[in-house]
Specification:
- It is a single chain.
- About 40% of the residues lie in helices and about 20% in strands.
- By secondary structure, the chain is α/β, with parallel strands linked by helices.
- Strands 11-10-12-1-13 form a five-stranded parallel beta sheet, with helices on both faces. Strands 3-2-4-5 form a four-stranded parallel beta sheet, with helices on both faces.
- Helix 8 packs parallel to helix 9.
- The radius of gyration is 21 Å and the shape is flat.
Length: about 300
């Protein structure tokens, strides 16, 4: 059996930065209660590590960041890598909380872009409904309009000086399709696609895979960039694509009789988890259960891991 390590995979720079900020905050404010508004990044293992550091995760899929702030009376609040609206920052400060900002620099870049544009125009923001990054960006102005699917365009009236941009962790193919459909309605609109480099190159690596029997995408089911990797595999016809959280999710029947198995992971997935998956696949092959010799190779190396 040939195991293809899809490169790049694992933490992106924004995730590394957010984790460092959380660790530094736990050390600096060890005498304070510390909370974070949702998952620091969309991976439960990372959240568990934050919990071990004494950081309390407030996560309610039905509650906005503003609502979550009502559950914090004192201490420190960490803004997660997904960012937040200015209302959230202001409310936290009004409550007397110490605000620590772990927003990904790519998300900050989008915020700067849209805040400048809404001074004299409207922004159509392609993003996932109820995703914290989309919530934080759309909440910056009443002139930012969320579009998740084509039918959302029907609800948009006359807009002025339109800019089309997007969430940083979306599907390349789906986003390009929605941008084209939006341009058909707003022909003079400017386009500034903001899918981050880490998301883009990971998806491109999967889209470039050839003759793969099975792809394992290691990551948290809450992670949009991880889910998009699985969808990318399906779009290029990989017959068996599985999103797994760790090596325990591998089933023998998924790989028995298969020749080429690829492994990748989302940008918020600890590398150790992905390495465990490769190790378990190797053990399956070495025990003879699969009746295949094992070959481990690296393919689709388009950028350094962590970019």
């Amino acid at each position: 059996m040939e195991i293809i390590n899809v490169i790049p995979r694992g933490y992106c720079q924004g995730v590394v930065r957010a984790i460092k900020i959380a660790k530094d905050t736990a050390e600096k404010y060890s005498d304070y209660p510390i909370s974070m508004l949702g998952m620091l990044v969309h991976n439960q293992y990372v959240v568990n590590e934050c919990t071990h550091l004494g950081i309390h995760c407030l996560d309610d899929k039905k509650a906005s960041r503003l609502d979550l702030l009502d559950k914090i009376d004192s201490g420190v609040v960490i803004i997660t890598a997904h960012g937040a609206s200015e209302e959230v920052y202001q409310k936290a400060k009004d409550k007397g909380l110490i605000v620590v900002d772990a927003t990904c620099p790519d998300v900050m870049k989008t915020h700067v872009l849209v805040k400048e544009h809404v001074k004299d125009g409207d922004v159509i923001y392609i993003g996932k409904k109820n995703h914290p990054e989309a919530e934080g960006t759309v909440g910056l102005s009443n002139h930012i309009h969320l579009v998740t699917e084509e039918k959302d365009l029907d609800n948009l009236g006359d807009l002025h000086n339109v800019l089309i941009t997007c969430q940083t962790t979306l599907s390349l193919l789906d986003t390009n399709h929605l941008i084209q459909k939006t341009k058909e309605k707003f022909k003079d609109a400017k386009v500034a696609p903001e899918i981050c480099n880490a998301t883009r190159i990971r998806q491109e690596a999967v889209l470039n895979l050839k003759n793969i029997d099975v792809l394992y995408v290691v990551g948290d089911p809450h992670s949009n960039n991880t889910n998009q990797l699985k969808k990318s595999a399906e779009k290029v016809g990989i017959p068996n694509a599985y999103l797994i959280e760790n090596a325990n999710d591998i089933e023998e029947n998924q790989i028995k009789g298969k020749n080429r198995v690829a492994v990748t992971s989302g940008s918020s997935t600890p590398t150790a988890l992905t390495n465990d998956v490769v190790s378990v696949l190797k053990k399956y092959a070495e025990t003879g259960i699969l009746d295949k010799d094992i070959v481990i190779v690296e393919r689709c190396k388009t950028a350094k891991n962590g970019d």
